[in-house]
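Quick question, first post here. What does this chain look like in 3D?
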Amino acid sequence: MNAVERYGRIQIPAPAGASCLWVQTPAGARERIPTFLNQEYDFVYDRHGYEAQTPRGEAYRCARYTPEQEGEYLVYDEAGAQVEAFVCTPSDNPGYVQVSRRDPRYFAFSDGSSYVPIGLNLVGCGYDRQPAGNEHFRASEDVRTTGMIQWRRWLAQMREGGANYARIWLSNRYTQARTEIMGVHDPAALARLDKVLDLARQYGIRVKLCFEHFRTFTDAGHFAYKRVVDPDTGRQLLDVETWFREERWNRRWLEDIAPYLDRYQNDPVVFAWELWNEIDCGDACFETVERFTRRMLPEVKRRSPKNLVVNSLGSMDEACKQQVQDAFAAIPDMDFLQVHRYLDQGAPLEICREDPVAFSQDAVQRCSTGKKPLILTETGAVNDRHVGPFRFYSADHGGRIFDDVTYPAFFCGAAGSGHIWHWDCYVDAQNLWPHFRPLHDALEGVQVDAENFQPDSIPDERAWILALKGDDTTLVLVRSRADRWDFVLRDGKEPPVLAGIDLPLRGKAEVFWLPGDGGACEPSAQGWTLSGFRRGCIVKIQNEK
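> Answer (accepted):
Ran it through. Tokens below.
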């Protein structure tokens, strides 16, 4: 008899033509699981390391299931005939990510342990243009990717650095199984996604899977262009507003995303399903996309009830965005709240132009309701009005911008770290993966959703001091105000060594210095005093009773 660990994943063969299987749990309950057509592939690499997939064997029908109870499971087909049996064994897997029952501002696993999503956007792997014959300075239109080599390295470095979360676009070139004809899918892309999620599972990374990012059907030069062909008429769709609004296209979209949901429904590696990246930024009015969101969130939830579901809005960089943020926050089926915000010197809102710590604090305060978790799920730095990665990324070898967009949100009351966008040209290029480590280590042993954390700040002209004061633990982020991107990278100033930074907090203290920094933390009459550092640290204090 096959065995699978609790909260593990088992693939079950299904009879040809079966649309579903029925699983009988050890408690006697029956659960319906969808089947899908699966084609396995071999991944091969040429001498340059470029990847290709070749089909292995014939396609076959199967289903995937996650057991939550130890004991024997029986699997039946639609006619009631037993087709499989397996046993679920004990495991230390914590289960699904859920909204905490103790404190709805945070997340927790099925076993009750807390989960703080620390990570970034890891949207897709890169593609390279191939040389055109012997003309070394010219490139053909042929592009190739190292694919899984990149994914394995990124996810391994995330794990080593202390991250536990990644956002992946299913509409990126590598995992885009849908074609321009709705209902027609590429099985090789699904095989690639299988490999990516297997790696995420191996390295302890939970993933948010975002279905779409397109905004236009007409501007072929736009990064968010998509060509969609009506399978009934063969005509190309040209109106995004109609596509969102009409019942027919809503049904088509649900059919089009079904291969993803059939494969990964109720998979614990899936932190959440996200309908759309920045859905309000396309060629459709907000009222239409809001109605679409309200309809589709429960539809996806129905198909994958044990995973969280959510949707996202564009960067909150102008005053009018508050209204749409509030509208999304009021949608009952939105399992948690998200906000996007970047350092952007061309932003209409002044607070977005200089200090990432300040804009992170402002974003959390503006968007948090106290009734659901909130995450700063896209952040980073861009050239004016989002025309490309920030001009100072290449000079930021110490990760100043990374630290200032990643750490503060959590200490202001968000449920996770800030999730930077530029995973490849900045985080990977500057090897900033170790910068997740201080937050990871500071949270070891802290039951975040049981602390009743209240955000606070300690005024100091030399440093940002952001505190989460809990019943048993206080977590403090200390960040030098002089070590900011504009002072150091733009103006060429050396940040001074700081001393006499007082923390009026009593209890046993442990210090986690930001990478490349260090100093002293000594007891004082007020509590603790920090000195001898240039950048900053996280201080964990076991409160004095």
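The chain has three domains: 2-89, 97-127+137-450, 457-543.
The chain has twelve helices and 30 strands.
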